[in-house]
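Hey L., structure's done. Input below.
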Amino acid sequence: MTEQPPPAPRFEKAGESPTAIVLLQFGGPDSLEAVEPFLFNLFNDPDIFQLPFGPSFQKFLARQISSRRAPVASEKYKEIGGKSPIVERTEEQVRALQKYFDEHHLELKVKVCLAARYWKPFSSETMEFLKQDGIQDVILLPLYPQYSIANAGSSFNEWDREAKRLGEHFNERRVREYYTHPKYIAAINARIDESLASFERPDKVFLLFSAHGTPIDMVERGDPYAAQIRETMERVMAERGYDKHYTLSFQSKVGPKKWLTPSTHDTLIELGKLGITDMLVIPIAFVSDHIETLHELNIEERVTAEGAGIKHYRVMKGLNDHSLFIECLADVALTELHALKHE
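Output:
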């Protein structure tokens, strides 16, 4: 399913020049010094934090929040290497997808690049790269399989704002979501199988699918993310023949609003009370290892799990550059490439 931008001026027939596949991702701080400005950009995003009194007040509040949270966040980043691993993992995805097209569809003259939402490379930097290379045909491909205004929606909006500010126009196609793509589902199951092999008793393992939460009022306004997360989980389990007991929880709550429940924290405690001792946590909404998987799930919630009596607790490795996930991205992009060529 695709979401198309407003019509833009066309410069030449699509397909006569190179086509860019622009992967959209949140991004992450590439150093401890980048933590505070990264957090500022996050809290200053009106698609996620809708505050009263306009943009000026939001900027002021974002500065206050990011300044207050940066020291704690920096300590967490120190524990996982001093920066966000999403930087390298996303670069690997870019290289893997580029390699796929170079090996299988060289005639399409594809260039894969990245536009990050909250840290470098920003959309404006990516647009400058496209301009320098004379690229006008663009596929925007979010590294968020499930659509939300807070993920792909925010990235699309930022892309449009920067294009307008810079006076840039591209011949675009946009991928909105691909949460049931067979190769995406297969990639998740391949990672699950890899993880289960590390347990002494794989038959005893309970599967906890943990997704990044969103405010409930976002769901009430029609955001499809929560329903799509659940459908992804059910597709995964259907492909497995429902071979394990499983459930869904939500993590990463920020602010005073009511968010999707049950929380991963509370769910771990309840599952421990039920006598579950072997658990695999599946970061269902994340396609890369980063702070919310390597620290929140693997360090912070490990303490919760072990305190609840869960003796064997593991967090699934992210999809990262798994070949099946890269093939999924390629399939999705090819559909839009062919559509762009025939417009």
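The first strand starts at residue 19 and ends at 25. The longest helix spans residues 54-79.

-- N.
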